[in-house]
Amino acid sequence: MDTLVQQLINGLVLGSLYALIALGYTMVYGVLNLINFAHGDVLMVGALAALSAIGVLHGLWPGLPGWLLLILGMMAAIPVCVSLSLVIERIAYRPLRHAPRLAPLITAIGVSILLQTMAMLIWGRNYLTFPQLLPEAPLHIGRATISVTKMVVIGLAALIMGALLWLVQATRLGRAMRATAENPRVASLMGVNPDSVIAMTFAIGAGLAAVAGVMIEATYQVAHFYMGFIPGLKAFTAAVLGGIGNIAGAMVGGIVLGLIEALGAGYIGQLTHGIFGSNYQDVFAFIVLCTVLILRPSGLLGERVADRA
Amino acid sequence: MSSRSPPRVRAALAAVGIALVALPWLIGPFGDAWVRALCFAALYVMLALGLNIVVGFAGLLDLGYIAFYAVGAYTYALLASPHLTEHFPALAHAFPHGLHVSIWAALPIGASLAAAFGILLGAPVLKLRGDYLAIVTLGFGEIIRIFLNNLNAPLNFTNGPSGITLIDPVRIGSFDLAHPGAILGLHPSSLHLYYYLLVGMALLAMLVCIRLQDSRLGRAWMAIREDEVAARAMGINVRNVKLLAFSLGATFGGIAGGLFAAFQGFVSPESFSLQESIVVLSMIVLGGLGHVPGVVLGAVMLAMLPEALRHTAVPLQDAVFGRVLIDSEVLRMLLYGLATVGVMLYRPRGLWPAPEHGAAITAGKTSQAVPRHG
Amino acid sequence: MAERAERAERAECAECVLRAASVNKRFGGLQALTDVEIQIDKEQIYGLIGPNGAGKTTFFNVLTGLVKPDSGTFELCGRSYQPVDPHRVASAGIARTFQNIRLFPDMTALENVMVGRHVRTHANALDAVLRTRRARVEERAIRSRAHELLDEIGLTRYTTQLARTLPYGDQRRLEIARALATEPRLLALDEPAAGMNATEKGALRGLLESIRTRGITILLIEHDVKLVMGLCDRVTVLDYGKVISVGTPADVQRDPAVIEAYLGMAQAEAAPRPQIQ
Question: Is the ipTM of this structure higher than 0.90?
Fold first, then answer.
């Protein structure tokens, strides 16, 4: 039973992270019908930038409290991610907006590789340690434990997702985004500038990814140039699971996927009598991905766009 | 086709043939590493040709292609190394002299297994649209890699991250490519012999591709790529034809994998990562999607250039900066990234596209009367 | 020579080429087709007309397997067929063209027509790789038949040109040539005269009549009423998904139900009522 509670907590933490990243994928897909393959790597660059910033700040003012460093780290990561993703959109995706669909996907793959290369050049190839910034002592819920960092992850994600939902439903920008996602041409006839809406969409997604990236390295205390790929792929799975193009879907899909992964990893040993262990954890996401895309491509909350070419 | 090629083309082909035969002798003196690089280039050519059938001929973006390479490699590795007999006493009992299946028997087995995986993968995903297909195939590829990495407990099938070593070299009759001895009075090195074998297989692969392209099947693939709805209306069983592309492409990968295992003598899951799938993809994108000579060019370039850079860029940086700023591994990745993005933005049809045909996948300039579909 | 074989095969077809009945199709809240039926006899040129939105294209797509009907019976040359898969429909003997022209744009005119031969030929991957005798003989036959067809349709000058570079009217003819390559029993044309000027339409008419004399039955959807009247032997008129008139062009033209459908109630009311003597 305590395994269950513990795994549920782990699942919520994972799910919150996946949800934040998935939002970036789903929003871009909504307006551009493009899988932004490089999204995970943008996250990685932001996370590494935050790590460097924290290192510098700590060096300059050693007395700064951990939570402040964390916030400042995020403040550093967000503009890095946002500007990076805007540059990528402008240089790599915009010229191919009317090309056959596979061209931007292939380009995105290339951009992903370039980002990893850039990170390797700046930060080297080794795993870097992220300092323990928040109090270490965990809290107890029954016999399960949760660290402060993980609580912050869940809380922060919930806050941000709430803010995003408000933005999309209740503001002018949100309306413009939804209109562009439905029909860019008609939206432009109504006075919406699709280029700026698309840019804003990338920017918001990148900002979310920056926060997620910093929270990932804070939770697992490690960062390195390849850290974006697997979370990125899993977050994409979450977006598809929830219904790609659907913002609420990305949130739901993220949480659900996190739970599936945590519960699966927690119980797989028991279920398969030791044949498969928790080292197969990553496989769950991929199996979910393949299953959803094959059996129900519209996802849990329904896809905005038809899935047939 | 040979009856149709003009004398100029035949002369060019003959010249290329002579150059290929002489190459190891010319390059050898600069170091074995170069000849090894050529051997790997030949393997990459086979992979690129196989992926080209799937992506270039049939228009299906497979990002998990390297899994078929892995299937072929591990099949030969398991059939021709001490691993299985060491870990499964029942097998050691049945094969007291060890498992030493000849590569000429193992290659068809590996190829068939890869083809079967191709059909297994292809069947459920064919109805998906382009980008979803890409992601699902990526997922499949990763699943295979994770299994290869972890199937070492409770029963040790794949030996996990350590991989399988002591794989038998290629044997032609009683003649062992790893320890050749004398042939017709000459003493060729093992590396040279592997070079000829691999280049020969690569040339065979090219021939097969060219024949497939200029056939009823090749036209069907092209039709599907251009307009799937019209192809279906013309009586083409699109599903089966796509499945055929998947499994034929997988077969190429499987054969290349078996040869790779024999050549390198050892396999591990590291060689079969997503990155490798992307490398092969960038080769065909750079060279010219759907155009066999272009694909070969792309493969050779992206296989050899990193070698060339390793030997020039590193000493150059040492000389100019006093230290190495960008090591060769990073340079290699940089090259792949730049090649992919650069080609997509500035030369989407690749460096050497087919002279008459456009590439329906990556570029599209159509007249108003014939709108691009799918 | 190939033509003789074609004629021999087609001679086996019963008098009636296509029969469909009780065809119904609903799209969500809209009943697109209600109990539509059609009967096309051998070597007829049959027209399917009706105002915009009448369901002509939907019915056409049902017949050719692009859209799955809710109900209906279908017979081609006396043999029942299920219009489930377009490729099976083509194999059974119905070849179609598309309203928006769906050629293979980056393939040459010759190659487009060669693809049409796919469904009647058999060489597989192994044949291709090994260059077996069967493959070589078949490939030669495919190529020569394609050349023949281009010649018959009058497109020889475009043989090695990419399909997307052809002028609009010739692209339509190429699509017809490609459809003919499948040796169809029924040639189904979706608005073949769309976008054509008067001269092109005249040429199209001549082409279709010459196709008919080669023993191929033709079904076409058309908006150009004048073309349909001059060309078709029989016509079915659809309106709001229902058949409102069937008969020769002359009959149908006089049918008040048809006039009402096309011109609206006001004019129908303005037309003089038949006097009862």
Answer: no
